[in-house]
Design goal:
With 121 residues, the chain is mainly alpha-helical. It has 5 helices and 3 strands, in the order αβααββαα. It has one domain: Winged helix-like DNA-binding domain superfamily/Winged helix DNA-binding domain (Arc Repressor Mutant, subunit A, Orthogonal Bundle), CATH 1.10.10.10. The protein has helices spanning 5-21, 27-37, 46-58, 82-107, 111-120; strands at 25-26, 62-67, 75-80. A 3-stranded antiparallel sheet has the order 1-3-2. The chain is elongated. It holds the Pfam family PadR.
């Protein structure tokens, strides 16, 4: 089962900022990395990624430059800025809160809830 569009959209900004915090990259490579990290469960399209990259650039979270490698076409490479790293830290703080709350909820399940959930799997 693939991850829902709502969760993909909610996680898009920290995912892209986190990947670019590892080092500069271009659109197609970012899409491949997301696919790799999620084991193919996150279905990202160019229609999701490129508007997000442009928005993050407008907000000052990313810088970009056109680069060409011998024998290949020019690619727009993105890199995270100091402002983007600060935003990533804030996004991570928020996600840690959400994940922590979910762990508490899922860890503290009553036997009835556990049986019902296991029956759905």
């Amino acid at each position: 089962m693939k991850v829902t569009k709502d969760l993909v959209a909610a996680s898009a900004t920290p995912m892209v900022l986190g990947i670019l915090a590892e080092g500069e990259s271009y659109g197609y490579a970012i899409l491949r990395r997301i696919n790799e990290l999620s084991g193919g469960e996150l279905e990202w399209t160019e229609g999701l990624l490129y508007p997000l990259l442009h928005r993050l650039e407008r907000l000052g979270h990313l810088d970009s430059s056109w680069q060409s490698v011998a024998g290949e076409r020019k690619r727009k490479y993105y890199r995270v800025t100091d402002r983007g790293l600060a935003e990533l830290a804030e996004q991570r703080r928020q996600w840690d809160t959400v994940v922590g709350a979910l762990r508490e909820i899922w860890h503290d399940r009553t036997p009835l809830a556990v049986n019902r959930l296991e029956g759905l799997a």
